[in-house]
Amino acid sequence: MNEWRYRYAGVDIASSLELPEWATFATAPTAHAADVVIRQRDPIPSTDCAAYALAADKAALTFSLPKIGRYWIHRGCEIGLAPYGAVAASDLRLFLLGSAWGALSYQRGWFPLHASVVQIGAGVVAFCAPVGGGKSSLAAWLVKQGYPLFSDDLCRLDVTSDQLPRVWRAAPRLKLWQDALLALNWQDQPLTRDQLRLDKFHLAYAAENSVETLPLRALYVLNWGELSVQRLTGLDAVQSVIEAATYRPEFVEVLGQTALYWECVIKLAGQIPIFRLQRPRDWAAMPTVGERLIEHVGG
I need a surface site. Which of 61, 150, 187, 257 has the fewest CB within 10 A? Predict the structure, then answer.
C-alpha cells in the first residue's frame, strides 16, 4: 500500500492517499511511527447514507455526508474515511482536510482557529468573520501588497503557554469569490472551482518561507459598516471571537468541550488585543481599509 508522509501543524502524518493541498508539507519516507494516520477504507454503498449524521463518544467522532462518504476520527491520532460509491478524490479531501481535520484538532486539545492569517512584521494577524464576512478577501488584498499569507480558513492556534499565542502555518491557498478575483485582477491565475459553491474559487499561493509557527499579534473580528476600529475587552471580546472564529461549533458541543473551549478563548482574550474592524462592503474602499489596518497594526 502506498503511503505519503507530511509534517503539518507540528505533527508527523502518514496517509494512504496523496494530499496535493499539503504538497508543501510533504516529507521523505521514514521508519518512525507517525503522530496521525489517515486511512482510506473500501467504498460503502451510497444507499447507506441519505442525510448528514454526526455522533461522538469519548474515543471517536463520526460524521456522514450524503453523496460523499463517512469519516471516523479516533482519539486525535487517526482519521478513517470511506467513500459512498464512486466519489471524486477531491471531494473526499475537501472534508478530510476541513471537517475531519478540525475534529481531530479538538480531540488533540488544540484550538482550531477559523480565520485568515497574514504575516505582518515578525508576527501574524488573524481576521475572523462568519461565512461571507470577507476575511479571505481582506487577506488577499494584503497578499497583493506583499504581506505573506500564513493561513486561510482553518489553522492550529496554541494558547496553552504563558507566551504569546502562536499560529501554525496551514495549507497555502486562498478561497475567493469571483468578485474578489476580478477586483484583484487575478482571474487569469490558476484556479480550482469550489466543489460546493460555483462562484467561489481556490487559488494556490506559493509560500515565501517554511517557518512552521509565528506569534499572533492581534485578532480582528470583521463587520460591515462605516470604517472604524474598536478595541474589544472582557465578555464582549470573548463572545465576538466565539461567534466569528469557532470552527464547526457542533463538534465542540458533541465532544463535550464547551467549557474547555470558553476557557481557551478567555485566555486568548487576555493575551492579545482583539478588535472589531468595521468596513464598507465595497471593493473601491479596500485600499483605504487596508491602509488603515496596516497603520493600526504597525506593520
Answer: 187
Strand partners, 7: 12
- Number of domains within the chain: 2
Q: Which three cell numbers stand for residue 66?
A: 450524503
CATH number at residue 170: 3.40.50
For 23-51, the pLDDT digits (tens) are 889 998 888 899 999 999 998 886 666 68
Same domain, 266 and 292: yes
Are residues 32 and 165 both part of a single domain?
A: no
Amino acid at 15: S
Task: Express each pLDDT in 49-64 by its tens digit.
Answer: 668 899 999 899 999 9
Q: What is the maximum span of the chain, computed from C-alpha positions, in angstroms?
A: 56
Strand segments, DSSP code E, in the chain are 4-8, 11-15, 26-27, 36-40, 53-56, 60-65, 69-74, 78-83, 111-120, 123-128, 149-158, 166-168, 173-177, 191-193, 200-204, 213-224, 228-232, 274-279
Rounded distance between C-alpha atoms, residue 137 and residue 201, angstroms: 12
**CA–CA distance, 155 with 105 (Å, rounded to integer):** 9
Q: Which domain holds residue 70?
A: 4-107
What angle (nearest 5°) sits at the alpha carbon of residue 113, between those of residues 232 and 8?
150
